[in-house]
Amino acid sequence: MRIVSKKLLVTAVTVALALPVSFTFSQVASAATPVKGGDLTILRGDLESSLTPSIPPDNAGIWVVEEIFDTLLVPAADAKSLKPSLATSWSASKDGLTWTFKLRSGVKFSDGTPMTSKDVKFSLQENSNPAGNWGFINSSISKIGTPDPLTVTITTKTPYSPLPAVMAIFANSIIPNNYGGKTKDEFGKHPIGTGPFKLATWTKGQLIKIVRNPYYWEAGKPYLDSVTFKLVPDANTRANQVQGGQAQINEFPSFSSVKTLKNVPGVKVTAFDSSAVNFLIFNNTKAPLSDVHVRKALASLVDKKAIITAVLFGNGTPAGAYMSPSSWSHNASIKGLPYDLTKAKAELALSTQPNGFSATIMVSSGNADQNTMAQILQSEAAKIGVTLQISQLDPSAWTAARDNKSYDIMFGYDTTDIIDPDELIRFTGLIDGGGSSLWSYYDNQKSAKLANDAVLIDNQTKRKAIYDKIQVAFDNDQPMVPLYYAPNLYSYSTKVQAFHPFVTGNYNFRNVWLSK
What we know:
28% of the residues lie in helices and 21% in strands. It is an alpha+beta fold. The strands form 5 sheets. It has a 7-stranded mixed β-sheet, sandwiched between helices. A 6-stranded mixed β-sheet has the order 14-18-13-17-15-16. A 4-stranded antiparallel β-sheet has the order 4-5-7-6, with helices on one face. It is globular and about 70 Å long. The relative contact order is 0.17.
């Protein structure tokens, strides 16, 4: 644990104000002819949990799964439409209950086995288990048919407008029927998919290496021989390794490093449009954070503008609603609780802890941005008699504490995976949405019923009206504080070509290549 004095904190914020930065917000695809070959290493600070598509709730695992497996459909780069993938076409019956997907012919898994409709049926059924992390996403499905090897029919219990979008989520990636004769656990250690890459090496908590799938259906791709995802918790170490050429991409460098990185030969920094929303998350199951007045007291101490200045160097906007502005479901009328010391004191006086209390903010070791935000909140909380200690944990311990509900306060973020808002309305806002309300364990059954009602409606305006109500309830309860909407920042070698993460966050390394 490291506690920083208020004087040092003020100095840090002053420095941030004195060093405004700017950087490219988009990257034009290279006009050069792609070169085949090369090994790419991407450094990250987050730990993956699983490579079995129906399991991972974390982006560290999800974004690797999307390189090993394919889905029937995929979101477009701007997350506003769908494109064909393993399915070349899809259509709905007149009653809106049955969807027919025509599969791409000639597709093989990375072991050379042909993919058929039986594999699709098995994959969707496996991900439909209500006890699984993502079973909720398929809860509308009542029957899956396989009239021929290249046709799949999906019948829903009621008309379900998000169905095509749901077929683009990583959790519905296509795996071999019956796990290719393996148990689920065995398959998870050596997954087989139809994606551009296949697993070569996986040392949990250290690195994942994927190599070109020789049977990949998209001719000529991928260009790279391999991609290695390497866990390096310390942000400075990641920056140094990209500068030194030991790695080619740094996933989420701190914004404070942009000014320095822009002056490093052979390195570029780009902020890509993103659906990400960053949060201060309260464990709603632990007293006194189970008290809405306590949560509102702390939320009223969050100076979002100061955080954006100190952490993002001005490159973000204060968040109100928990749904991203990139989604049509975003409720722009919600502004969140403003910074208000008087309001914070009043809320605490109404709480079970009117004289203050002690709690711990859990941050990931090496994450400079989280540490800075924790220091800002720590300083503000002291003004109302609340003592917040900062506990730095390595990624493995941090993840375990999150999953075991053994934390008080932490930071987190979400991104969309599909173009329909139903996923994140549930994942972040509902207890049974796969992420336990983004690990806040917030439970609002009225909102859950509203979410179930929304997907029965094939009218975007009417659905948005329901989602607006859910976001208002979330804002009233403050189970977590939406902090800011910001782009996703990456630093990477100038040799990396066609690197352009989607708004949803996925990488599509099938298109990336390295210049000589």
